[in-house]
Amino acid sequence: MRASVEQEPARPGHAYTQAGVDSARQERALEGLLQHIRSTASRRQLLPISLFANVLDLGNKIGLAVSMDGVGSKALIAQMMDRYDTIGIDCVAMNVNDLLCVGATPIAMLDYVAVRVPDELLLEQIGAGLADGAREANIEIPGGEIAQIKDMLQGYSKQRAFDLVGCAVGTVPTDRILTGRDIREGDVVVGLRSSGIHSNGLSLARRVLLESGAFTVESEVAELGQTVGAELLTPTRIYVKPILDMLTSGLRIKSLAHITSDGFANLRRIQANFGFVIEYLPDPQPIFSLIEKLGAIPRGEMFTVFNMGIGFCVVVDPADADRAIEIAARHNVEAHKLGHAVPDPERRVHLNPVGLVSTASYFEPAST
Question: Domain of 277?
């Protein structure tokens, strides 16, 4: 069974754009905003905006790491399922995983919940998920904001339409901030397994699997081992425990990357002229092959939009790669050696097992 996908010449992000997410246009529009935002920076701001999180210098070698993210259109899946007790975990995960990438220890997150109407069941279940995520990440949620914006929110469920965003903070010694500047040739990329689709690419997944009429959220799919809705709603993995364990175990970690939108191209978010050659990729979870086949999605776009089975990467000294894998296993997270760093001023990411290369935020077939 195939989703009805209009056949047009493939280009980077084409299917995702048809699904309503125009990444290229977003980048162009964002520059207009950033030209003003950058003017607010002072000497307290230690990093460029392009990294996963920023760090503010509080003095005495103490850095305050800050990050902000939301659950995106995964909220629509929750509405289709009328289940809201895990979406808060995704909100926590998307924020604390970004904080980890600068070497920070997450300490707290504030939440913003926008609703059409203040439905009691909706808010109680969102709160339960936020609390579960906070406990897993060992953070506090000391406050937040709720907004009733009936005229602005449509959603799948008129009664329970919502949006959920978080802003997280953490601490990091200013002399231990990770930016990739210490990467050297041969440093190993260790990939930590994702729990599934996480919180990126849901617009494309929804279009291919649900809006095409191929499935409903209640459809049982043998290769998934559960319903389509349950698979898509699987919470984003929180990597705080294994990564903090690595950071405090003496491993020579050079950079950390949260594999979200743009996939392995997130490895490029470093302050060093190095690229990466990926030589091994574990098989992605069945949800990804289902989307790829049903929607006839080009392989390059799959690796641009989705995490494809790896949710977090650690770039580490070769001598410490095995220990990183052992620490991940100690926290019940599967990890693999994926590849290595190479000098490259263009910071390209080569995915050799699938014949793709990224010189920007998307993957295309590598030249032969």
Answer: 188-365
